[in-house]
Amino acid sequence: MVRAESKESLLVLEVARECLEESTLSEWSRFMEDHESSFGSDEEHRFEYTEIHGKFLEVVERRISSCLERNESSVRDFYAACRGLRKQSDGTVETFVDLMLLATDYAAFVDLMTSRERRTYCLELLRAWRRELLLGGPNKK
User: Fold this and answer.
1) Domains in the chain: how many in total?
2) Which pLDDT tens digit goes with each residue over 55-80?
3) Contact at 8 Å (CB) between 131 and 20?
4) Which pLDDT score, from 0 to 100, does residue 84 have?
5) How far apart are CA 21 and CA 82, in angstroms?
6) What phi, psi does 72 have (nearest 5°)?
7) Domain assignment of residue 15, yes or no
8) CB-side exposure of 132: number of CA atoms within 13 Å?
9) Would you say 18 and 24 are in contact if contact means Cβ atoms under 8 Å apart?
């Protein structure tokens, strides 16, 4: 379970909770399902992939920004907190920061978009991570 003691860790924990809420994960899943037909198995990346990735980033950033506004913080505050906490982390914050980078990384996004199996696996890992780290155990919803 994430232990939040400082203002920075509370902020990162709140953003993590927002990003790992079932409604957020469902929104991301629906977005990917709605756009999966645009992605082929060919090796060439079309410009359309970049446009879809940009739209996905907007979805992710809207969730983060909403949470930051409720906590009277800025994106700058959030990234500063992530950098500081990542260095002193027990691995929990580091995992979340890496997760956020993965969610917004173009190559990782395209990889997920070209495989329904990988997307499903990734979303299940996120749900398990949420249960384990944020809710206190595997039997919690």
Assistant:
1) 1
2) 999 998 888 898 899 989 988 888 78
3) no
4) 76
5) 19
6) 50, 45
7) yes
8) 9
9) yes
